[in-house]
Each structure stands twice: as C-alpha cells, then as structure tokens.
Amino acid sequence: MAETRKILTQVDPVWSQIRQEAEVAIAEEPLFGGLIHSSILHHHSVEAALAYRVAVKLASAEMSEQLIREIADAAYAADPSLAMAARADLVAVRERDPACHRYLQPMMFFKGFQALQAYRIGHWLWNEGRKDMAYFFQMRVSEMFGIDIHPAARIGKGIMIDHAHSIVIGETAVVGDNVSMLHSVTLGGTGKEEEDRHPKIGNGVLIGAGAKVLGNIKVGDCSRIAAGSVVLHEVPCKTTVAGVPAKVVGEAGCSQPSVSMDQLLGQ
C-alpha cells in the first residue's frame, strides 16, 4: 500500500494530496465517511472522481446519474486536456482563494470549480457535434449552480471563479489561462447579432465582482477590471480599468493580478 501511494504521489501529486485530505476529513468528521468515500476514495483518479461529482450534481428526472457519468467518463478518456485543466483549476483555487485551505474543498463544496468542470465536458460535447447534449449540460449547470456558460465558449486553464453566483459567459467569449473572476461577472454581447460578439479575455486577468464586459472587445493580458465596471472598449495589457463606462485609471499594480487578487485601486 505504501509503495502504491509513493507511485501515485510521483505520478499525480494533486490527486494524492486530495486523497490524503479526504482521509483526514473522515477522521475529523466521521459522518462524512460515506460521502467522502463515494466521491473521492472510491475512485482511482481525478478524472473518475470528477466524472462522479459532475454526474451526481447534474442528474435529474430527465437524465440519470448513470448516463451523465458515462458521458463524463467518455469525455475524460477522449480528451486528457480536460483533467489537466481541472488540476490547474484546483491549484488556482487553492493558491488564490483565502477561504480555501485544502484541494478537497473545491472538489466537494465549491460550485465555481464544479460548474467549470461540467462546462468543460459540455464544451467537449459541443466540439464533438453533440450540441443538444451540450445544451442540456449548460441548462443543468445553470439550474444547479446559478452559472450560465455557453458550451461553445472557450475557456483556458488555471481558472478561479470565486463565489461564482450569477456568472454569465456568452457563446463566442474566449477566456485565457490563469484568469480570476468573482461573482456576478458577465462576458456578454451588445445586441442580437449572431456573429463573433463576445469579449476576448487575455491571460492573467482579474475581473472584479459585478463587472460587465460587453461586445467583441479584447481585454489585454495581466489587466484588472474593477468591481462593478462596465467595459465597452478594449483594455490595454497590464492596466486597471474602472467605472461606468470603464476607463483606464492606472497600471495593473503587479505582474500577475489574477494571482495576487489585489482589487484596491491606486495600488
């Protein structure tokens, strides 16, 4: 058993850490034993555990847990990048969210992380031409988590969605790697045109709570969008924008605003 754990740690340290934290959680709260075993310890990998969690959360009278689990398993088997992105998302949440003290927390309790992983499966379905099933995933994510991400949207890895209530990301939106956003963010359009109509968010961007970024505009790498801002025009790299409508108010304040999570203007 010890040798197996050693190999697991070398191959997948994130999964090994999650399993260790799961065992500690059961020791601290025995009533969680069944939940933790079924969600974490019963599985052999991050992929298997995520497939189970997504299926449990999205299942309904319309679509059984077993069917959703089979879809999720197929997605992870066909596209290894899904699980790699999930690992990067886990690390992002653990490093950036001061309320997160263990990798186990996002897996079990944080709807932003869970909704993002369900979206990733829906996006895989969309790319496979299974659009109706992708729409079903979008619908259930919206119903269960209060987050509406179109399955055609393209989202990078290392994403943290903090609190995550009322997030809306439109069909032609693109979100780069290592982005952090807080609750009530909208990446939307400005009308009913059907062409490319949603924002393109660069790498390392921090989007504050309640910010609305509208239209086919580019938000440059490592920039900050202040809480409550309405962004209608391009945002240069490494700058801070604020206001309604948003204007440049200074530099970003650091090289990685999405990691520092510093939201104070003038910093």
Automatic annotation (TrEMBL):
Family according to the record: Belongs to the transferase hexapeptide repeat family.
Keyword Transferase found: yes
Serine acetyltransferase N-terminal domain ranges (all copies): 14-118
Gene3D superfamilies given in the database record: Hexapeptide repeat proteins (2.160.10.10), serine acetyltransferase, domain 1 (1.10.3130.10)
Classification via CDD domains: LbH_SAT
Record field: catalytic activity: L-serine + acetyl-CoA = O-acetyl-L-serine + CoA
E.C. designation(s): 2.3.1.30
Gene Ontology molecular-function annotations: serine O-acetyltransferase activity
UniProt keyword Repeat present: yes
EC category: transferase
GO cellular component, one term: cytoplasm
Alphabetically ordered keywords of this record: Acyltransferase, Amino-acid biosynthesis, Repeat, Transferase
Pathway given in the UniProt record: Amino-acid biosynthesis; L-cysteine biosynthesis; L-cysteine from L-serine: step 1/2
The protein's name in its UniProt record: Serine acetyltransferase
GO BP: any one term: cysteine biosynthetic process from serine
Pfam families xref list: Hexapep, SATase_N
